[in-house]
Design a protein that fits this description.
The chain has three helices and three strands, in the order αβαβαβ. It has a three-stranded mixed sheet with strand order 1-2-3, with helices on one face. The chain is elongated.
Length: 74
């Protein structure tokens, strides 16, 4: 997982953040399996696999909120 390669300080900030906006398809690919509320992805969809996964057209610019990421854990 991408977060496992991050510093402990970054992982702590990521875990404590109320909102995370991830930029780029590579970050989507690395973080899509992460369970986190308020996790959003900004990206240009560059391949058919990601387009199919997200249900959008290839080549489009999107803001994607991972399903279930708006759960309130408080």
């Amino acid at each position: 997982m991408m977060l496992d390669r991050s510093s402990v300080a970054f992982q702590d900030l990521f875990d404590k953040a109320d909102l995370v906006i991830s930029n780029g398809q590579g970050n989507l690919e690395g973080l899509i399996a992460v369970e986190k509320s308020a996790l959003f992805f900004l990206l240009m969809v560059k391949c058919d696999v990601i387009a199919d996964l997200l249900g959008v057209k290839k080549g489009g610019f999107i803001c994607y909120e991972k399903e279930g990421s708006n759960n309130n854990n408080n």
